[in-house]
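Holo prediction. Input below; ligand is PRP.
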Amino acid sequence: MNVAVPVICDAVLLDETTIRRRVDELGSQIAEDFAGKDLRLITVLKGGLFFLADLCRAIDAPLEIDFLAVSPYAPGQGGVVQMTKDLSDDIGGAHVVLVEDVVDTGLTVNYVLSLLRARGPESLSVCALLDKPTRRIAEVPIDYTGFSLPDRFLVGYGLDLGGLYRNLPCIATLRDDAVLS
Ligand code: PRP
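Structure of the complex:
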């Protein structure tokens, strides 16, 4: 049984089937691009874990997964992000794909890429399910993009409002009054 879309949402932007199809395409592309290589998928908790879980199962190749967590940056404080949970494994010499649910300002990916780069991976790529380019502050390379979307507050498939609604199988926009309240 699926989780119902809550009343605070006004529209389903990406339904479960649409997301699954795109995730499958991204998985096939990544499997082809990294065939025979030491592939690591790394995501940033918490939002990215839903996409990572589906994406890794769409990649028909051996791979490892790992997680890190960062504190959210405070608006107006120069985009400072700090790591609050480190990776479990060394990534030296590995082909790393940083998996993100959404790239918005780009500050998180920018920080995480610099952190990962310093650890000597053989290659470093970014796979983002959602790209919201209109709010970009830090220009970051995105090698694999699921969907490019306008700047709307979204919930579901890892995206939350106050910690809730990550478990929706779809991605939905919020009613304006829900965002403001
Ligand atoms: C979200 C998302 C990205 C980040 C992107 O995480 O998972 O990590 O925001 O935003 P940016 O491009 O503006 O940096 P969030 O800080 O909401 O934490 P969460 O993953 O725990 O929801």
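Residues 44, 46-48, 72, 100-108, 160 surround PRP (CB under 6 Å). That is the main takeaway for now.
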